[in-house]
Amino acid sequence: MVNAAVEKNKDYIIKIDNLGYEGEGVGRINNFTVFVPGALPGEEAEIKIVKVNKNFAFGKLNKIIKQSSDRTEPMCTLKRCGGCQLMHLSYEAQLKFKKQRVIDSIERIAKLKDVIIYDTIGMENPYRYRNKAQFPISVQNGKPVAGFYAPRSHEIIDTLSCLIQDEVSDKVMDIIKKWAFYNDISIYDEAAGKGLLRHIMVRKALRTGEVMVAVIINGYDIPHKDKLIAMLKEQVESLKSVVLNINREVTNVVLGQETKVLYGSPTITDYIGDLKFNISPLSFFQVNPIQTEVLYSKALEYANLTGEETVIDAYCGTGTISLFLARKAKKVYGVEIVEPAIENAKKNARENNISNVEFIVGKSEEVIPELYKQGIKADVIVVDPPRKGCDEALLKTIAAMAPKTVVYVSCDPGTLARDLKYLEENGFKVKEIQPVDMFPVTSHVETVVCLSRKNPDDRIEIDLSLDELDITTAESKATYEEIKDYVLKNHSMKVSSLYISQVKRKLGLEIGTSYNLPKSEDARVPQCPLNKEKAITEALNHFSMI
Ligand SMILES: C[S@@+](CC[C@H](N)C(=O)[O-])C[C@H]1O[C@@H](n2cnc3c(N)ncnc32)[C@H](O)[C@@H]1O
């Protein structure tokens, strides 16, 4: 693309002003925004422009002319892996960056001023903290490779040792690559949708040391499985479970719905605090067990329970937060969409002798309005949604239920700020915000927020009929603007709200009423071209909306 400000393949000198949300340096050339992965604020660098969009460009770092005092030598030797965006930034500066990201979203999106936002709680050792590794597998030069994708690409960077994973995952990846190579196991080709071996997942329980290996395949079985099990048993200490996960779909989603046990148990066990949890391959379990204790303690503190409260834990996964809360509350309802996670949650409650908790399978935005309809009103509601944030139907129900406290646990400051804005406008006050570093050396930020009802004596201050609650919506909540930004940034194309609506409707997602689409696809209404449809579909995938 020709652009008056910058030219592709040309070298420039740039001053970096700040860090973008994905950890890239951001500066301006001729008043035009340029993202430079690897560059830091305060640095002056020589870069080559590698991509030019209408509103911004990407530069490749050639040489640092003036270095930031926050720069550190990354401990990892992989230069092009897209896994850790901030390893070149001192840990102290990473924590500041994460706090600033939260402040920016709260001010820019939620438009809230004078909110207490604490410093990010970091880790003593910000390496080897993950309890779950999940790598795609592919073939390069005739050999299997596994690792993160290079940034903005589907090229796998073969990772012999990943410094944010437990050492056991390095060992398991090596064993499976060797087993696949020597036994001529076919490897999945993403473009063709053919081949057997797709992904490897390794989970290790921090406290018990138990290890689970999941082999994700585009098929129903693997040849030479006895050899694989023998190799794993011989070399992996505390191997508790080897499973096959069947994923025959042409999709970016890693795990399929069907799992078969090849060896040992279908679950592994770990502890958070003194609570014991069963974890199955499909269930969500926080990946940083040390910081999970910090996060949950904060959530419990914010819930401020006396033993008399009815609590709802929306998006409860395997019931971890629910069980933490149950010991201090009268009754807890946990709601989660993944059925095996709810089965684990029920088992977890039994094994921890906790009986005042009820787990319900379903979408929070459908189940919780239904509970409200049945007359159940929570005193405290905890939400811990995926990145796309809370569905509006759930937020409406929270506003109608008017609990005295809402605790919002979030892994995306943008959607968090959007939802806080809604809650502030509908009866709640944001009291304080605590970022917790769950994902050191990456650009991801986890936050826990305490909100209280603005008028504590007026329980139902929002006149909201249940008919208004769109409890059937399956639509998640990346905004149209977020989808447009994604498409612009990744495909250099502008897409209209109309086109997004058309694609969402085609995919069976509901459309916000404000777009007021015609009942039939009138020939006079412009139709989304295929290339834009593909880009929008990718964005919807990215935001986990499909
Ligand atoms: C960020 S995780 C939180 C899990 C749990 N609170 C924890 O700390 O382990 C989000 C969870 O929401 C679940 N989920 C996603 N969409 C959902 C929905 N619409 N309704 C209920 N649960 C949903 C996911 O399966 C996942 O378990």
From TrEMBL:
Pfam families per the UniProt record, alphabetical: TRAM, tRNA_U5-meth_tr
Active site: C411 (nucleophile), C411
Keyword S-adenosyl-L-methionine: yes
GO molecular function: rRNA (uridine-C5-)-methyltransferase activity
Sequence positions that bind S-adenosyl-L-methionine: Q286, Y315, E336, D384
EC number(s) given by UniProt: 2.1.1.189, 2.1.1.190
KW S-adenosyl-L-methionine (keyword) present: yes
Keyword annotations: Methyltransferase, S-adenosyl-L-methionine, Transferase
Boundaries of every TRAM domain copy: 5-63
InterPro entries: MeTrfase_TrmA_AS (IPR030390), NA-bd_OB-fold (IPR012340), SAM-dependent_MTases_sf (IPR029063), TRAM_dom (IPR002792), U5_MeTrfase_fam (IPR010280)
BP-aspect Gene Ontology terms: rRNA base methylation
Domain of life: Bacteria
Family assignment from sequence similarity: Belongs to the class I-like SAM-binding methyltransferase superfamily. RNA M5U methyltransferase family.
PANTHER family: RNA M5U METHYLTRANSFERASE, TRNA (URACIL(54)-C(5))-METHYLTRANSFERASE
Protein name: 23S rRNA (Uracil-C(5))-methyltransferase RlmCD
Source organism phylogeny: Bacteria, Bacillati, Bacillota, Clostridia, Eubacteriales
